[in-house]
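ok so i was messing around last nite and threw this chain in just to see what happens. nothing serious, just curious
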Amino acid sequence: MNRKSILIIAAIIVLIILIISKCNCRSETNTVVKFVHPPIEQADVPFSDFVVDASRGDTIMYSSGSVLLFPPDAFVDKNGNVVKGNINIKYREFSNPVDQFLSGIPMDYDSGGVKYTFESAGMCDIQAFKNGEPVFVNKNSKPEINLATTNIDPAQNLYYLDTVTQQWVNRGKSDILVLGKSNLEVKNPVIETDDLPKPVQPYKVDGELPIIKVTIDTGSFAELMAYNNLKFQLDKSENRFNGEDSKIVWDDIKLKKGSKYGMYNIQFIKASENINKSVEYKVRPVLEEKDYAKAIRIYDNQLKKYNQKIEDRKLADKANKAQYLKDSMENLKIAKENEKTERLNKIIEAKNAEIEKINAETLRYNRYVANENFTNRILRNFTFDRFGIWNCDNPIHDSNPILVQPEFVDNVGKPIKLFTAMLFVKNFNGLFELYDYKLPVSRDRENMIVGVYKGRFAYITYEDFKKLNITADTKSQTFPMQMVSEENNNYAFIKKLVMP
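result:
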């Protein structure tokens, strides 16, 4: 074999390797794309198309009541460059189990090896393109989705469907906004305002210092209430005392707390035609010998109670501070929600005014633009950093279903094998898949089954399911399925059939 022949063979081998490699890559790409695969292609949940101004920013008002906000420069290309001009937005929502089933989006969630079923409070799919090429979110100017919902349960988390890893990724929480409502009130911290009077230590009468014999209602001073026969004696530091003051018949006497705890000031006031005088002395409460022993026992007991109250106060203050911090964080969240709600209310009012104006201008041409009435809506608010499927969901684990081995038959009793089968539970916004080839029938609730047979939608109604009388002892069950016609095998008919 000559050298030329060897080179030709080598070139062919390299070409074959490249073709195989390319085929493998395409196969992987197809696998990723087909991760979300609608069971009936022609019955997939349809997208709505919008055009937004990338440079200026724009707002999309969806028919469900959802509001999508795009700030200026919200889009970048695959190289990270900001995209200008018009952007084509494709948007759809999945508001009920029929949407979830027909979209082919998985509604199960695995955490720690335990399989959960999502109970949805709202799910959407958003895509963006420029001249047919996908664009991406500018992380420095993120868009915002306000997803219409009827579910205000805070248990719902926010999830993004990663089609590469084929898993739901927990992305925290959405804010719950209620349009048309008055602002929420912030919470005020609980602050303890009562005072803890420290008991005053009693002292014996000092024979060298003057005693001021006055009758004062000590009940106005909580720290003195426990003592009887109190007298007030000049403090050793008082050097302003004038003996002549004791000869005056004073019109008024006031007792006030001094600057030092346990010390008091007595003020004597005289106001008449002949004399207008006021004097004040520093005094401390004292007791005669016969009253002192009893008073010191009272003081010791009161001091013990006081110290216990101080410890209790410290614990209470610690709890109050923790609650205050919690309330402060809640207040910030409420203020943020109020700000978002007020902003959305203004946007929606402007939109409704615009629609009314169009209606008035075009009425004579019989082209009426429906006002979707976006007010008084509950919205799930969140910003997003990538296009794709976003879901407000709470993972539910039914630990005690009735596991039934199903056999499906058509309307003449002939066994059929469904391409896919799932269980709907009435008033539950989610769907249950077969578990180990068994149907997890929910106890004490209404159930129905939906599936696909030869590309057509198959189902058994809630009423027909109930007639089967499935109990906890049921191990297997034959389910007679109805099939829609080829003509009616579309999204609009199926949704109306199951969700009238």
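not much to say yet. The longest strand covers residues 114-130.
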